[in-house]
Amino acid sequence: MFDFLKSMMGGTNEAAKTALDNGAVIIDVRTPAEFSGGHADGAINIPLNTISQNIKKIKKYNKPVVTCCRSGARSGSAASILSAQGIDVHNGGSWQTVQGML
């Protein structure tokens, strides 16, 4: 159970690191204002409240996805939404954690 909670909150995530090493798309699900204050290199800003409307766009990347946010909670929600749509997705946790994986 602890591993599940850790992965939902974006704890150490070897799968996300491997996906990034293999060219995954980074999607930062924070607000545009939060994103402009700092983000992982190469991240795309798609706020959580618009993630469902962007499924087709995300599928067109045809790559695994790593989600991130401030703490890992919103990115965990986004990862669940994307996974339900058949997208290979990993919750990277905070954007700083993802940046550290690059």
Question: Could you give the topology of this structure?
Answer:
Layout: H1 2-8, H2 14-21, E1 25-28, H3 32-36, E2 44-45, H4 55-60, E3 65-69, H5 73-84, E4 89-94, H6 95-101
Parallel strand pairs: 1-2, 1-3, 3-4
What does this structure look like?
- Helix 5 (73-84) links the parallel strand 3 (65-69) and strand 4 (89-94).
- The radius of gyration is 12 Å and the shape is globular.
- Mean pLDDT is 89; it is low at 1-11.
- It is built from six helices and four strands.
- With 102 residues, the protein is α/β, with parallel strands linked by helices.
- The N and C termini lie far apart (28 Å).
- It has a single domain (2-101), classed as Oxidized Rhodanese, domain 1.
- The chain has helices at 2-8, 14-21, 32-36, 55-60, 73-84, 95-101; strands at residues 25-28, 44-45, 65-69, 89-94.
- A four-stranded parallel sheet has the order 2-1-3-4, sandwiched between helices.
